[in-house]
Amino acid sequence: MLFVQNIVSWSILLLIVSGAFTAVLNAKAAKYLSTIVIALVGVMNIFLLKYFLGGGESFTYSMGHYGAPAGNELRSGALEAAVSIVFCFVMLFSLIGGRKHIEEDVKGKKQNLYYISSIFLLCSMLALVNTNDLFTAYVFVEINTITACGIILAKEGRQALAASTRYLIMSLVGSGMFLIGICIMYGATGHLLMEPIREYVLTNIEPGSREMLPVQVSMALFAVGMALKSALWPFHSWLPEAHSSATASSSALLSGLVLKAYIFVLIKIIYRVLGIEVLSGNPIFDILLVFGAAAMIMGSVNAIREKDLKRMLAYSSVGQIGYIYLGIGMGSAIGIYAAAIQILVHAATKAMLFIASGGIMDVSGGSKKFKDIEGAGKRDPFAGAAFIVGSFSMIGIPFFAGFVTKYTLVSAATQLAGWRMYLAFIAIIVSTLLTAIYYLMAIAKLFGGENNSKRPEGFKFNIGYVAAIIIFIIANIVIGLNTDWLINLVDLGFSMFA
Amino acid sequence: MNYLLNNLPEYSAVICFAIGFSILLLNRNMIKKILGLGIMDSSIYLFLAVKGYVAGTVAPIVTLAEQAAGVDTTLYTNPIPAGLVLTGIVVSVSVTAILLALTVKLHEEFGTLNIDEIIHMVREEDRRKE
């Protein structure tokens, strides 16, 4: 075994240990420890990705050297490594960019608790991305839910309290469905590891036979459970409250990362546990396609009606999650490529927009209502620039990150047949237009008005915030300029996936 | 009918799951929601435990006493579901604890346990701010 292959388990273990250790530290030490550890894990994963790009094979890491069927396994390939890197660095810069708000919103002595939550959140997301075992996935799904609830609650207030309760209830409904899906799958196949399930289904279960029924039912339960947890329309009702009432870093993490981790688990289940060929023609794909298309349109319609910047961004997330499900629902390999690309791109873009919205609130007297933020783009040019780049990326203008999603999604849609193709195209076109409308409306507000370019007295830019915004902007433009590289990376990742 | 009787534990687990699931999703009272969560989780553990049980076999712990007594130790119940149930119980205990803590906080803040009323109150406050 190569040395570099230890990185997967080391990053998870390092995060668990440092998360536990943070409990006894004071706020300042916790801040530095979390920054260092998250950056370290990100750099370690870069080495892992370099190994894969240099021709390394994907590998399975047996925890404690206990093999299948009883052991617990991690697995890594180019796609897992890439998603881990994006998660680590988006987390790092979201925390740095929203540091000022964390220090204001979270009561003094509780600040280290915020860092514990965020370290465990990253830990659970990396475990979800890399695990090869369904039950481990369930345990980390629950850890993810609890820590996400923790970072919503960090900003005390009635709204955050009600929002996190709703979030927790909807999440628990989703994880209950996920768990019973795992149990049915275990009853039907006798395995929990992903590859043995796949082998068993391929060799022992004839397509269309009665034994296939439990497998299909558990697939439906996985899909609906994960859809509930990742706020697919019409299960999104908890999302705008939760994402808009939290502190800036929390919103960025929740919208940018937490939703994606669940979707990545679903992609793994579709691709690795059952395989597209086994599932082809399964009605669950059509359901995801229809709801994904509905989410794209309804999320955007709701975003247009919002008069609150962060709620608008939250509804925009509902729409963007719809793009991912539209890609998954196409039921083809290229559709899932598009979904994976959207996961990476949206993580980078939406986190930037939420951090920028924190900066906008700073120069607008703490308000996030549209009537108060007029001209905020002039008062805080960094947030203004971030909003322009982020909006162009979300609309899908070439040379910005979002373009690559639209491009792959449209090329995936051309391969569909009949009503599915019409639905996908109508959804993409309508949603793009609506997205353009509400983001341009927001930009018009941010740069509109007169005599409002004066900053509040004594206002100073936080250096971490400025650095985070600049790095996010650069990342978005670099992704937009290297479309082919990203598509090749995802292609390589999926070739290692099965 | 025979089919039903052979799979009785599975059927009861699924019925309990449906009951707990609907209470968790639809009931307005926070405490009842938490009870629903408990029913839902327990039913899943029943389902798992039943899946691991093989009739007429011993526990997967073989001691000399059992071998001396002439018990057939080649057949044993599957230990993995039991392990999964234990892990699942730990998870659901921690989740229930958090939900209960949130409920206490909600009652302190809003003076009610009805989640619909709470959402309504929050929305009203938000509207008044504008």
Secondary-structure map with pairings?
The complex is a heterodimer of chains A (498) and B (130).
Chain A: H1 7-22, H2 27-53, E1 59-62, E2 73-76, H3 78-97, H4 99-105, H5 111-130, H6 134-153, H7 158-189, H8 194-204, H9 212-229, H10 239-245, H11 248-274, H12 276-279, H13 283-305, H14 309-329, H15 333-362, H16 376-379, H17 381-395, H18 402-413, H19 419-447, H20 463-481, H21 483-497
Helix pairs in contact in A: 1-2, 1-5, 2-3, 2-5, 3-5, 3-11, 3-15, 3-20, 3-21, 5-6, 5-11, 6-7, 6-11, 7-9, 7-10, 8-11, 9-11, 10-11, 10-14, 11-14, 11-15, 13-14, 13-19, 14-15, 14-19, 15-17, 15-18, 15-20, 17-19, 17-20, 18-19
Chain B: H1 2-6, H2 8-26, H3 30-52, H4 64-68, H5 79-110, H6 115-129
Description:
The complex is a heterodimer of chains A (498) and B (130). With 498 residues, chain A is mainly α. Chain A has 21 helices and 2 strands. Chain A has helices at 7-22, 27-53, 78-97, 99-105, 111-130, 134-153, 158-189, 194-204, 212-229, 239-245, 248-274, 276-279, 283-305, 309-329, 333-362, 376-379, 381-395, 402-413, 419-447, 463-481, 483-497, and strands at 59-62, 73-76. In chain A, strands 1-2 form a two-stranded antiparallel sheet. Chain B is an all-alpha fold. Chain B has one domain: Helix Hairpins. In chain B, helix 2 (8-26) packs antiparallel against helix 3 (30-52) and helix 3 (30-52) packs antiparallel against helix 5 (79-110). At the A-B interface, helix 6 and helix 7 of A face helix 2, helix 3, helix 5 and helix 6 of B.
